[in-house]
């Protein structure tokens, strides 16, 4: 009996020790998924700043719209395609503007021809015809003058009536006027062009040249070209679609993605803690761990209301922020516009 009692006492003592141990140690359940995620992400500390950002290329997104209201004739590129500066991306219907350019070219040729004609003067045949007309008029005038003089002498002896003499005088005056007009026409044909006529011809030529340049500029605008090297990010166009400068959506969106960057909004409380060349780590909710490393390459010299948000607990949304740009060093292919979190090592 004493042995049985001793065994029971020992078991009670051991059970009590186990209960006390479990009470102090607590449950040993496995770590949650959120705990694992926090372990794989950098944490904001006293020496690390956290800010929201998004991925962009060397240049921001370039939106290209048609500068003319015309139909889309041909699309030369596709989404994701790399293009070079000056490469034709899209062509609008050029038929109407081609006709306007040809009309302007014809008007310029006509203005130049008018000036050449003015400088060359009249044709030799025109001058000779005017000379012959003048000589014929002068001959008729000489005959009329002689007849009038003779009738004046005869009128003194009452051999010619006063009516006949008046008719001769009127005919003489008419021939004198015709002779003066003929001489004026001949002199006009023989004279060189006046300075004001040459100035007017030059002005007409310059106006025609300007109309031709405007027509050519409008025709060139039917070809939408790449302003720089880059990748086509968006393409909102269909062949036959009518587009123009007032279209709500750009026809083409592109950017130079040879150097990926993160544009980051630094909270006003950390705005003075950032400097050029500070090291950064870039993460995203789309992937675990660090996506890329980089350093601050550019900082905006002014503050503005915050526009990018990280959607994390405790983030302030009613503050001002300072925008910075972080050049990514790793060869990662990230989509433009991807929201990211940027952890900046304070110095």
UniProtKB/TrEMBL annotation:
Residues 25-45 are annotated as: Disordered. Gene3D superfamilies: 2.40.30.170, 2.40.50.100, Helix hairpin bin. Pfam families: HH_YBHG. The lineage of its organism: Bacteria, Pseudomonadati, Planctomycetota, Planctomycetia, Pirellulales. The keyword Cell membrane does not apply. It comes from Roseimaritima ulvae. The keyword Coiled coil applies. Its main location: other. This is Putative multidrug resistance protein EmrK. Keywords: Coiled coil. InterPro entries: HH_YbhG-like, UPF0194_transport. It is found in: Cell envelope. GO terms for cellular component: cell envelope. Residues 198-225 form a coiled coil. Residues 104-220 form the YbhG-like alpha-helical hairpin domain.
